[in-house]
Amino acid sequence: MEITFHNELDIPGGTDAFVLLCSQAEGLPEEGAIAKLDESFDGRLSALVQRKGFKGKKGQEIVLCTLGRLDCTELCLVGTGKELASAADWLLLGRSIGSKAARATWSSVALQAVRESLDPRFLEPLLRGLLEARYRFRKHASADEEDPPDSGFEAIRLLGVPEAARSDSESSLSLVREMYEAVSWCRDLVNEPPSRCTPTYLAAESDKMARERGLESKVLGREACEALGMGLFLAVARGSAEPPAFIHLSSLPTYSRGPKVVLVGKGITFDSGGLSLKTAEGMKEMKSDMAGGATVLAVMSLLPSLGLSLEVHGLVPACENMPSDRSYKLGDVLRGLDGPSVEVVNTDAEGRLVLADGLAYARRLGGTVLIDVATLTGACVVALGEHTAGLFGNDDILARTMLESATKTGESLFRLPLSSELDEQLKSPVADCKNSGGRWGGAITAALFLKRFVKDTPWLHLDIAGPAYRDKGGGGLGQGATGFGVATLTRFLLDLDRSSQTVESGASTQGETRDPRGGGAR
Ligand code: BES
Ligand code: MN
Ligand code: ZN
Fold first, then answer.
1. pLDDT, tens digit, for every residue of 423-469?
2. Catalytic: 177?
3. Predicted model pTM
4. Mean pLDDT of the chain
5. One of 352, 408, 434, 514 is an active-site residue; which one?
6. Alpha carbon distances (Å) from 254 to 213, 257, 311, 385
7. Of the residues 283, 377, 461, which should be mutated to test ligand 1's pocket, given the most ligand atoms within 8 Å of the CB?
């Protein structure tokens, strides 16, 4: 797939569709590109635009066959509304054009904005949306002529991006291409049926990726985890015949500087709830309970080509949560690698247990910035809906940096509080804490549980239970896994790397000896 720049209205040969983005404020149809195109249509284009009442409103569109009057098969006018002011707007626009392209089987498109040029700041989310909308997971379906497997775009041509902005954009174009690969891989892993995508499968896929990309890779099996004392992770794994796998990937630059970042992704390859069994309805999407883990693996896969100076580790405690005669039980008291003892009051609150051992392992590695990503609570979906992830953290600067990264990628993230009043809900009569704080504030008490295991290490927690997976398609994204978080976490690492370099080049202290509290984010 190629992405190239061209001059205004300079449509390269072999283009299936020329998509013209028309905003509402532009006095259509007399002005700008439409007026110029009108010549090729003997004035009939502006007449059509007028007759259809096309004003560039959001959702308005006109698609017409050019019958050879332009160097493309179809011309598509898309209304973008009054203002596209944020990356999120551009991401959604990209998705809607991308899904239109999939339906119309356009494999090469040229894009131009009327009068105004495509804003280089927003090219990245626009292109990401465009590409992601064409993703399909059809590998287990028989070939269907009605719905041919999607092969993505052959070419995307960007018309009218100012000369000065192009060179900057070149590097972001290669990032866009690699990001698309990584996001699609993440979605494939999540969409794969759970009896295939077992912890063993996840570890093998991760290992294969690490070999191809040149990352260090280590997988700890049951015995190795036992020897370390990962009692929380292993308790969850116990009910299943599938062996658990604790995945550890590392990206170690020759000369690393800045904070040592450890990403931890929840890797429950199927969450039945265990003995606190879910309902059939509640279990339906639970193959997606390793989405956080898949996000971490995808971000790790991008690191070798980003060339950061940060040392980054990716951990995925992967297992199934199943009921059986060997399952962990309600009333059990568990001890993990480090941190408080835990009374099990609900075996469906398993994510926080595997993450707790992941976070303790991250601290042992000497991580100075810990970030976990997890489909952790239904309560977070109740609070924020299906499109927004919850952000928690004990470090305001890191949290702000993450929110800014999300603003740049167009993914929706909202910070929720670690309300200390709710900590009482985790009190246990027999252990240091319980694994569930009950109904109220469920996303918060889950985060408060994790907080006990990170202690004072700077830490962020992303609850992606809502946006990671879609029951039904819509808004330009198909049914199933979304790959949520890959773009934002990658952006975050890029931003953290850049700021830790500028801080360090001006500071007298070097590398490891610096204030470890995520100093790079300052
Ligand atoms: N994996 C679920 C959370 C989830 C729910 C993800 C819906 C995606 C969609 C998690 O393990 C879970 O079961 N959480 C419980 C916690 C409760 C028992 C304290 C929940 O949210 O009900
Ligand atoms: Mn659960
Ligand atoms: Zn779960």
1. 999 999 999 999 999 999 999 999 999 999 999 999 999 999 999 99
2. no
3. 0.94
4. 92
5. 352
6. 16, 10, 9, 42
7. 377
Nearest to 238 by CA among 252, 228, 249, 225: 225
* Residue 278 alpha carbon to ligand 2 centre in Å: 8
Angle between the N-to-C axes of helices 163-191 and 486-506, in degrees from 0 to 180, rounded to the nearest 10: 130
Q: What angle do CA 270, 426, 349 make, to 5 degrees?
A: 5
Q: In this structure, what are the phi and psi dihedrals at residue 251, rounded to the nearest 5 degrees?
A: -115, 110
The H-assigned helical ranges of 76-136 are 87-104, 120-132
DSSP β-bridge partners for residue 419 = none
**Which of ligand 1's atoms lies nearest the C-alpha of 288?**
8
Q: What is the DSSP string of 438-498?
A: -STTHHHHHHHHHHHHHTTS-EEEEE-TTTTEESS-BTTB-SEE--TTHHHHHHHHHHHHH
If pLDDT is split at 50, 70 and 90, which confidence band does 509 have? very low
CB–CB of 188/287 below 8 Å? no
Residues with CB under 6 A from ligand 1: 271, 289, 346, 348-351, 375-379, 381, 436, 442, 465
Place of tokens 């609070």: 383
Please state, in angstroms and rounded to a whole number, the distance separating the CA atoms of residues 77 and 319: 49
Using one digit for the tens of pLDDT, what is the confidence trace for 94-137?
Answer: 999 999 999 999 999 999 987 666 777 789 999 999 999 999 99
What span, in angstroms and rounded, lies between the C-alpha atoms of 294 and 190? Answer: 7
Find where tokens 């497997």 sit.
Answer: 149
List 278, 329, 335, 415, catalytic entry: 278
The verdict on whether 427 is a catalytic residue reads no
Distance, CA of 411 to CA of 87 (rounded, Å):
8
Q: Which whole-number Å values give the CA distances from 179 to 122, 175, 254, 378, 380, in the listed order?
A: 15, 6, 24, 28, 27
Which residue's CA lies nearest to atom 3 of ligand 1?
Answer: 377
